Amino acid sequence: PLFASMTQQDAHEFIITFLEDIHKEMASVKGQYTEVVYKDDESPLEVYPKFISAIRGFQTSPLQDKLQFTLLNTYQCQCCQNTKFSFQIEQQLVLDLQFLEDLEQETEKTFQQYSFFKVQTQNQKKSTLQKCIDQFFKTQKIEKFCTKCKMETE
Hints:
Shape: flat
Distance between the termini: 42 Å
Protein name: Ubiquitin carboxyl-terminal hydrolase family protein
GO molecular function: cysteine-type deubiquitinase activity
Oligomer: single chain
Organism: Trepomonas sp. PC1
Radius of gyration: 21 Å
Number of strands: 6
Strand order of the largest sheet: 1-2
Pfam family, one: UCH
Keywords: Hydrolase
Strand content: 15-25%
Number of helices: 5
């Protein structure tokens, strides 16, 4: 029904919806998801197996096993330096293409200023993609409540 209308949809929306529907058809629902509780002194490496076990105990499919990946989010309080973490299941890595366009425009200006030839090697293209991935994973300041010092910090 989502794609039955005459409204325009892009290929990304289609493939994500298609894969989610296949996953739902193949998935075996085993019960309710229970949040993984961990102690403050446990590391992400110690908690990750518990997290994966809880996810697989809830709903799993062969498709999910091949396409999903887990991101580790780490939060550090700017007041007391307390560190917390969480895991996030993802099926796609959404890169900031505006960042990529801005980077390409900067590179183009630099080439025009300092070079007689407009040459872009394969290595430069790879480094551009790497910069886009680095942009996705860069440290960000967010507002979050710290359970240790009871402060709302960035």
